[in-house]
């Protein structure tokens, strides 16, 4: 999948602004960003559900949106909200989706039995979807999205309403799909999920602000993250945030985690600033995290324009 100069405007609002993307085959590619960052709008353009204002999109060798109808037979799509029929059983939902995909009846029956076993629904095939837990509904939605064995799977914040154990199991299933040859594009605002992706794009107010593997992105922050150990975390935080070169100071338990600019301030300078206020502290380098990456790349855009403060309904609909 490849996009160049991808943009979508809603009136004066630039929901997606000149984004370039390349998604390798057979990988899990993540979209990380806060609500309103352009993740959902980008996904809808890439799968042909929304026409871009400008830009070129090629997905599975097809030109989008011109060949969107052909593409829909080759992709799966799952939203953050459960979108199947709550008054139908697990099997009936899968039968309906197989019909939507124009699958031959004999093939559909065999595929449904396969999915019931693969997604652990053997004893729940006749259970109404509306009576299932959040994690079970999520598994059913994923089973429905892959019933026709799509080459490419779009997942729009699919784990936003489930417990941590269900999220973990869901991601194990995604890796199984990727290993079997499915390319997956998944949007999330969870840092732990972003770390699981083979490659990651970070969006902020419609702009692509970082793109690379988690290791590549965190590697760019080497030397810019520090851990501060002190018994006066809140006072120390106020002092440190006033120092030139300090972008953020987040309290993590009994410690403070600092992120500095590309021209980082030294640990000795920071200790001196704290001593001047009567605060003793130990300061040492710490390995960067994706959260540090996110703060660093969005810090450049910390002052939105009035148009950017607006939020299109399309982004979270």
Automatic annotation (TrEMBL):
Residues 297-317 are annotated as: Disordered. The lineage of its organism: Bacteria, Pseudomonadati, Pseudomonadota, Gammaproteobacteria, Cellvibrionales. Keywords: ATP-binding, Nucleotide-binding. Residues 1-230 form the ABC transporter domain. GO terms for molecular function: ATP binding. This is ABC transporter ATP-binding protein. It comes from the Bacteria. Gene3D superfamilies: P-loop containing nucleotide triphosphate hydrolases (3.40.50.300). InterPro entries: AAA+_ATPase, ABC_transporter-like_ATP-bd, ABC_transporter-like_CS, P-loop_NTPase. It holds the Pfam family ABC_tran.
